[in-house]
Q: What sequence folds into this?
């Protein structure tokens, strides 16, 4: 294994560069990160639901400044309540989150929050600010997804685990909430979907194990609602009465809701 | 192992009650007018002091219809928080609100070690799964398909400015 030496060797290539990561490299990084995220828990085997979440997510992402990214949305088979984004347009939401969410407008808000992380490059910037800038160098310098691409994925595993267990800065989360609300509204949904989902989360036991990672990596729901209350103010009063599409959401998630999770291992 | 009879009973019980219908206790985060209608300039029926508790009847856009004693009226949704003013005193488990299957009745809060999912431990133990990322391609949706989906759901794209943390509209950032 020569990944460390290889990454070091590639470092000088970005010393000359501006430090920006072009879009193909960003997608490559996101692909590598998502390999580890889905390694923790695979996708849910429910093609119709996967497709539905992509339809909602893509429509929301189309309202952003980056409609042309190769957006990929997925539901993983975890009862833990959470959602993740990775650079380049990867968004994963857990089935546990889909159980908390009650309609399509809430889902649009949750996905809009994740789309915002991608659009504002929050994870990319966190990697850049961290001790992992040389990974970006490896990504930027790798000409093809050959040997060096595999090397990149391997080198990303540690930073991915660290970043996604630690979370982003809270200001990134508050910004993603504000953008998520706007993207959902641009998409024609009831703007209060994300706040409604946060209100639900705010009713739950703060030490519930299924919320532990979400609550560790995000400001608490009350603080997020306080921030959204100030930011939304009266700005969305002209958008009362927009669709929540609860029926379509409940139909799309019915199978998932009525199926127990796969084996609870007792190890 | 097949699904036991007790499980079926539980499923039936959970299916019968929309879980969120039970989640209707709320309090106001600061002094707020109780309005006769869901509009800023609607008549005020009274004032709800900070932390006054209410029962949420329904939501309509950015407003919640609530019951406060004998009075019914409307308050802005973001003036309300569901549940307990001290979140540490919340008692609702995720299983209770989602009707999910992840905790057997009476199993207590220790289920975390037995259930695989996306916990911090699961993340730390993860090995890259390239085949799972490839599967995402199968479900990807084009811009055109997304627009058709939106139309079927009576969703119309709108022009809406981003807002900053103080609630001021900001131009689109490129």
A:
């Amino acid at each position: 294994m020569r990944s460390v030496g290889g990454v070091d060797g590639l470092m000088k290539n970005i010393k000359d560069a501006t430090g920006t990561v072009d879009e193909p490299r960003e997608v490559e990084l996101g692909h590598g990160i998502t390999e580890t995220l889905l390694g923790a828990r695979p996708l849910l085997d429910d093609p119709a639901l996967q497709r539905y979440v992509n339809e909602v997510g893509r429509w929301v992402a189309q309202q952003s400044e980056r409609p042309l990214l190769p957006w990929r949305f997925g539901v993983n088979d975890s009862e833990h309540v959470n959602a993740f984004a990775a650079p380049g347009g990867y968004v994963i939401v857990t089935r546990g989150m889909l159980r908390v969410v009650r309609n399509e407008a809430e889902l649009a808000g949750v996905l809009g929050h994740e789309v915002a992380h991608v659009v504002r490059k929050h994870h990319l910037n966190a990697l850049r600010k961290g001790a992992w800038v040389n990974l970006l160098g490896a990504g930027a310098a790798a000409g093809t997804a050959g040997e060096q691409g595999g090397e990149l994925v391997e080198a990303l595993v540690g930073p991915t685990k660290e970043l996604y267990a630690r979370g982003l800065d809270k200001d990134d989360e508050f910004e993603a909430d504000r953008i998520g609300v706007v993207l959902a509204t641009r998409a024609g949904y009831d703007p209060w979907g994300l706040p409604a989902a946060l209100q639900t989360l705010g009713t739950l036991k703060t030490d519930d194990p299924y919320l532990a990672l979400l609550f560790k990596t995000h400001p608490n729901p009350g603080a997020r609602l306080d921030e959204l209350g100030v930011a939304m103010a009266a700005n969305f009063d002209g958008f009362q009465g927009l669709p929540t599409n609860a029926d379509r959401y409940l139909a799309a998630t019915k199978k998932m809701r009525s199926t127990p999770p796969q084996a609870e291992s007792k190890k | 192992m097949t699904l036991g009879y007790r499980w079926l009973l539980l499923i039936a019980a959970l299916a019968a009650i929309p879980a969120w219908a039970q989640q209707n206790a709320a309090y106001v985060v600061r002094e707020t007018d109780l309005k006769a209608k869901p509009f800023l300039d609607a008549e005020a029926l009274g004032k709800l002091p900070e932390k006054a508790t209410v029962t949420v009847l329904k939501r309509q856009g950015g407003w919640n219809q609530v019951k406060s004693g004998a009075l019914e009226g409307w308050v802005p949704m973001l003036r309300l928080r569901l549940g307990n003013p001290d979140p540490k005193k919340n008692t609702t488990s995720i299983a209770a609100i989602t009707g999910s299957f992840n905790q057997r009745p009476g199993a207590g809060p220790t289920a975390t070690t037995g259930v695989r999912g996306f916990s911090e431990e699961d993340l730390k133990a993860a090995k890259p799964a390239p085949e799972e990322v490839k599967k995402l391609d199968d479900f990807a949706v084009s811009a055109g398909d997304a627009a058709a989906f939106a139309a079927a759901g009576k969703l119309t794209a709108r022009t809406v400015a981003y807002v900053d943390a103080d609630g001021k509209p900001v131009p689109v950032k490129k």
